[in-house]
Amino acid sequence: MDAPICLECQALDLTFFDPSCAGCRASLLAQEATVAHVFAALRQWVPQVQARVDFLVEEALRRGAHPVRRGIKNMHFSLLKKICKVEKFSNILDLGHYVL
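Predicted structure:
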């Protein structure tokens, strides 16, 4: 599974998901995008993703990547938890009623 990259970024020959790009964000927020697309973007871990990891984590949680729903693979939740445990992002450990 690849992260969704908008047509504009593809035309610029960008090979990564850029959460600061409105087109890429729209591609990820589209109904046909899945939690696997969110994790594909998180796995890229380029500076653009690192700068907006909060957006991606919130989107992963919105799409069901939390312990309440068992439909997600444990490795996805583990990846999400490890990302949140990075001290720099500790402020997103408590997102509403999802506590990782």
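Summary: Residues 7-99 form one domain.
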